[in-house]
Structure formats: structure tokens, C-alpha cells
Amino acid sequence: MKHARNAAPGLSGVARNLFASLGTTGKVVTGAVAAVLAATPFGAWNAVADDAVPLSAGTPVEVGPYEVLIEKVVSTRTLGDVRPLDPADKLLVVVAEVTNTSDLPAHAYQLADIVPAPVGAGVVDREGRPVADDVATGDRPLPDRYNIADAGDLDVVNPGVTYRVALVWNQDGDAAPATARVDLAGLDWIDEGFAGLDDEYWLPTDEITHSGRFDVEPPGSAGDDGEAGGADGGSGSTGTDA
Amino acid sequence: MTVSTDRNGRGWWRRNGVWLAVLPLLIAAAAAAWSFRLVNLWWPTELVDEVDRADVGETARFVGEYYDLGLVDPGLANTWVTREVDVRVLDVRTAEGLPRSVVAQIDRVPDGSTAWRVELELTAEPGTDLGSCQVILLTADGTRYGERGTGSDPLGQGNPCMPPDSLDSVAPEDGTWQTSTVVLTRAGDTPDEVWLSFGSPHYVTLDLP
Amino acid sequence: MSGRRSRWRTILFVPVAIGAATWFVTQVPQDAGVDQPFEVEGAVGETVRLGYADLTVTDVRVAQRIDGEGVAQAGGVFVVVDAVWEAAARTLSIGGAELVDAEERTHAATDRSGCATATSAAPAYGQRITYCFDVAPDALEGAHVRLGRGGEGESGAFQRRDAVAVVDLGLDEAALDEAGAGEALRVEGPAPVVDARPGTEGDA
């Protein structure tokens, strides 16, 4: 054998030599394995079936460290001091009650991973572009989060503590949907990450585990007024009172 | 394993003899390198490099490289710049009051603390960037007072390398100038060294009487 | 042909060696002393010496609402812990704050309203910080805080082989009565202590 011709074949050289040494069957099998491996990041192993569990208002659901209860979906012009980025738009608010049922503190920002933007309700992203109905959960626009009790921010949710939160998206001003589809996406507990570099955290799966249609309370309805008042924090600038 | 020979017909042991002899030394070097302190050599995030040391009343010469981001002089952006500053202690004495500042978090000497006024004379090429300057007082037991942590100076003082009331952090046209800054220590502690630094790892030491 | 066999052996050698080494490393028993923090116990009002800093928990209060930068309403109840840090030999960042209840549930501090989760500490003067933990009412009884310079990270990654103060808060269910729905409790961000520091009173 002519070892001297290629003293350091490198990784690709080794792979080429190895591939060349395989029989026809071996080549076919190797090719198939390589194809599956290459397709893995694009979801080759994902379950094909749409097996989301039905979701309805007031039913608690376990997601990651949280128990999440979707209370209602509200469309409103303003929510206290919160206004849409474009004055012609509206706000789409998902009101939820969340409890940390684990033994560790949970990051409130992960509520945005758990509750992706509702589908079919005219949600627009921060540049005002409409969001298509088939956009993957992880690619939908992220909501602003408010603790309804004090209209403030929420950073951590400690074990056993319950908050009523408002998740707020921008909604197309002309959209007047009667219902919207609310999805819940799961979180996976990563006890030990790749090479132990990143351990013990909740990783968004971006896979829909629960899904249900909710009535959207239109602007100016009684429920909306109550909501805006509740999250208002006493600013008195609610634009929906009239 | 097949015993291979090269074209001179030497065996494996002969060919690798030198490396086998060196191997114990390499293992010893690896063991020595397996030390926490060596991080100071490769990743010096602390003040570990004393550039110069001056006796009482003498001048110390600070020479240290830093990576310029071009914030002061865009012409120097993304280059390594050598900063050269000469420094001499004029006086270190206890101070009764604290400097007046609207951004001070501490407006009078705290109970259990002593305030020291440190007066220095600096010499540098006009235009030298003196950002992140720190004047630190050390006591015999190694306690460092006056290090700027992540926050700003709680006494609300500006850059301690700059003349009073200057707004920027660039060496003035005069080339030599005096500075005055106040550092808090624990009551009863007397500093015996001043350190001047522009961030880790370089500093110069100035002995005090 | 022997050349092909030896190549296969070389190729196989790498995964086998890595596998064997990995197995060996996981079999070596981990001594708890290797990566556990050094816990120093203390009580409210007592100065805990951690080597790199002295810590005194000066006050523990319970409130439904706190007011620093706007009013924050607790989801459970706020445990408000006032502490004073004084660094020993150099200026430090203090980043670890955790409340652990009797059932070993851990709780993170919040930076809602005027509360802080981290500060810097210097020698020469005390630095006061107010930690706020929004916890379930049943977590009060037997709760303690773990305060240190390193953050918790992943399973205490930044506290390994470093001192952490464990201070019992001495709370019980009765503390809930004082929480009440009255005035919101005033809290302020970290600041140096100018008046008499804890730990220096008896020194003169």
C-alpha cells in the first residue's frame, strides 16, 4: 500500500477511503444512514400524527414547570398604558393563570414559549406584517408579558406561586375574528445538556401539545373593560371605557 | 499489530526514541500546568502583572498594551495600543470631608471608615487614553481599597487620573499634571502602597512612607 | 490483506478508547467535597464571615405589596430580606440569592419594583441590599436564605468550593398576619451604609 502518497489523509480522506472499501450493499446502507442523519435537524424523527390534546377555557394543563390555565382571549384597543405599536392596530390579549408546580424557580419569559401567538386572529409581528396560520410555534411573534395584579413585569415564578398574566400581541386593526386557535407548546427538561455545557433547564420543543378554539371578546365588551381595569394599575387612561 | 519499518529499516522503538525520552518531561510539564494559578498567565482577569515599582517619592513608569475600540480616537479603532504613563505620589493624607458631588452615594465619611486624599503627579504624551483609571490604596495585609467594581465610584468622583473638573479621559496638553482623589479605608488601617491601573492585568506600585 | 485489517483496527481504536475512558470517568466516585459550596450558618442580626466578605442579614419582613419603583403585588407573599455586605480584601460582585423552604424547594429573588438580586461590595464600608422573594405562604415556615458571591447557575455551578451563607429567617405562619393588606412596604435599591455598620459596634 502507498502510505507515503497521502501522509495525512484528513477526516474527509479517511471517510473517502472507508467508503471506497465498502461493498455495494454497504454503500447503499451507509448512504441511507447518512441521509437520515442529515435530515435529523429538520425533523426526520418527529411524529407525523397531529396528536394535540383539545384545550378549552378554564381547564388547567401541565406544561414544563407550569400549570397553565387559559382564561380567555380578548381583543382591545388599549390595555391600561399598553398600546399597540401602530395606533391603527389593536391588542390581542391571552389571559392565563400560571402556577409553578415544580420545586425550582421558573423563568417567566418561558411563558412566551409555552403560549405561542394565537392562530387565525390577525396577529401581526413588530413590523406590522401579518403572521401566516401555518408558521411554526417557535417562529411566531413573542408577546409582551404583564402581571395583571400590578400591571408590572414578571421575572421569576417561584414554586407554588400563582399569577394571572396577560400575554399581549399586536393585532391587525381590521381583524375582527369571532374565535382564535390557542396552542400550547411543550418544554423538555434538559438534565444534562450536550457535553455537560448547559444543564438543568427547560428547552422549548416548539411542538404543539394542546390546541383549542377560544371566543375572542371584541373591543368594548364588558369583559374587556373589566380586564383593562384589572391590568391598569390605576393609570386611568383606558381607552375602551366609552 | 504488524511491525512496520521505515525505509532505513529502523524499528518503532528506534524511530520514537527521542520522543520516548522526552515523554517524562512532557508529563511533568503537563502536571505543573495543571494548576489554578496558571489562569493568571493565560487569562489574566485580575491585577496580576506589576509593570513597575517605585520607592517612596520616586516615579513609576506604567507601560501596558490595551485593545482600542476607537471610542476616543477612531483612528486607533481595533488596534493594540501601548499606554505609557509616569506617575509619582505627591501626598497621601487623611481627609476630613468628602468631595462634593451630585452623583455621590456616600455624602459623608461612613462610621468605621477613614477617608484618604491621594495626590499624584502624572506625565503622559498628550492625547493618551486614560480611561478605566483606578487609584488603589493597599494596606500591609493586602487589602485593596478604592478598586472600582462594576459600578461607578460611590463617592461620585470622576476619572482619578485626570485633573479636577476635566470631563474627558484623555491626557491633557500640558504633558504633566496633578490629580487628587479620595479613597475610603477601614478606620485604623494605614495604606503603605498605592497602585495605579487601567484595568487588569497591569499595574504599577508606589511605596508610601 | 493485513493493511486493510490494521486500518480497521486503527479506526475502531478511537471510539473504543473514548468509550472506555468515558466509562472509567463516570465510575470514579465523586467526593461531595469536590464541588459543594462551604456553608456558613448564621441567624438574623448576626454577622456571618465568609472569608471574601462579611454578611449581616439585618431584617426580615413579610408583605403583600412592595413599593420601590412602582407598587408590586405578590403572587404569594413577599419575603423581604435586608442584608449588608462588606468585602474583606477587594471589591466584589455579589450575585447569589436563594430562599429554600422546609421542603427543600428553592426560590429565586426578584428584581421587580426596587428589589435587587445582585450588588457589588467593597471593603471600607457596608453595602445594603434588599432581596425580595415572592413565595407561596406555605414556604415561610422554616425557610432559610442562601446568600453568596457566586450565582446559583446550574446546580450551584458558580458556588463550587466557595463560601455561602445559610441564614435561617425564623419565619412562621404568624408572619403572614403582619403581611396584611395595608401600606405597601417601601424598598430601595442597593446603596452604601453610611451610619453605624453591623459588626463594628462591639469592636471599639
From TrEMBL, chain A:
Region (Disordered): 209-242
The protein's name in its UniProt record: DUF4352 domain-containing protein
UniProt feature, compositional bias: Gly residues: 228-242
Top-level taxon of the source organism: Bacteria
UniProtKB/TrEMBL annotation, chain B:
Top-rank lineage group of the source organism: Bacteria
Descriptive protein name: Uncharacterized protein
Species, as recorded: Myceligenerans salitolerans
